């Protein structure tokens, strides 16, 4: 006789719901004799409680009781699987000899099979084998779907991340600004923007090459990210300009953040052979607080923070300027 595939005969965890003690014991012995683990109860409510704590591969339940409690148990199982993505559980219902017409109803309700009492052992073997295959197929499909979902999520995240700095790109920035605008309009949330840029970065590239420039920008971005809170947003705005959005912060909070960024970059002590601002790579920063919540207010906010960065650089670099172009720090103190 040909051997069944190992997967078909692998051990199952079977939960038996049967009101008759004699039938319950007999069926447990049949299931365990076939190498499966059997747990039995007479109460469908107790069965549901067990399933929530310790999922089973297969449930065998008596469909022929007057209150059709097994139907309620089946409905709860299928509802949980649909809502929560819980692991699939095979369900085999037991029908009385006069209840053959109930087989179609049981299958329609979501059962995977139906056995007529008194049980035929060959029928039980066949039903367990088929149900086991179905359960494992359903679970493989769910695992594959979950893998695809995670891959799509990672891809979606990667598409919105700048490959060099690992900060958000303009796609992520536009999406986050739309969400932020909605929260600002609805709840009045405020924020401050900080835009930092490497001083005289073009000279750095000219002296050491673009590969070295990319590496410097990568290191600067990592140092800047290390200073931020979880709630803060970080984006590569353009070239070597990095935009930070700090929710629920004012200009003074922006100055503190900008100083931390400058200190973190200065601590790297990365030589800059052609900088007039510092012997090492340094940052300038512009700060602007959000005023209003409309689209024009957001656009104006970004213009003001970029203009503030330009103003900071115009002083010679290694400094910070607010949206009103007030210089607040600079020179050797930032090294």
SS element count, helices: 11
Name the CATH superfamily classification of the largest domain.
Answer: Reverse transcriptase/Diguanylate cyclase domain
The top level CATH class name of the largest domain? Alpha Beta
Number of folding domains?
A: 2
Structural class: alpha/beta
Mean pLDDT: 87
- Form type: elongated
Note down, in words, how this protein is organized.
The protein has 11 helices and 11 strands. By secondary structure, it is of the alpha/beta class. The longest helix is centred in the middle third of the chain and has 39 residues, at 121-159. It has 2 domains: 6-153, Rossmann fold, CATH 3.40.50; 170-334, 2-Layer Sandwich (Alpha-Beta Plaits), CATH 3.30.70.270. Strand 10 (320-321) and strand 11 form a beta hairpin.
Question: What characteristics describe this protein?
Answer:
335 residues; alpha/beta; Rossmann fold; Alpha-Beta Plaits; 2 domains; 6-stranded mixed sheet; 5-stranded parallel sheet; 50% helix; disordered N terminus
Brief synopsis:
With about 325 residues, the protein is of the alpha/beta class. It has helices at about 5-10, 20-35, 45-55, 70-85, 100-110, 120-160, 170-185, 200-210, 210-225, 250-265, 295-315, and strands at about 15, 35-40, 60, 90-95, 115, 190-200, 235-240, 240-245, 285-290, 320, 325-330.
Question: What is the topological layout?
Answer:
Layout: H1 6-9, E1 13-17, H2 21-33, E2 37-41, H3 44-53, E3 58-62, H4 69-84, E4 90-95, H5 102-108, E5 113-116, H6 121-159, H7 170-187, E6 191-198, H8 201-208, H9 210-225, E7 233-238, E8 241-247, H10 251-266, E9 283-289, H11 295-314, E10 320-321, E11 327-329
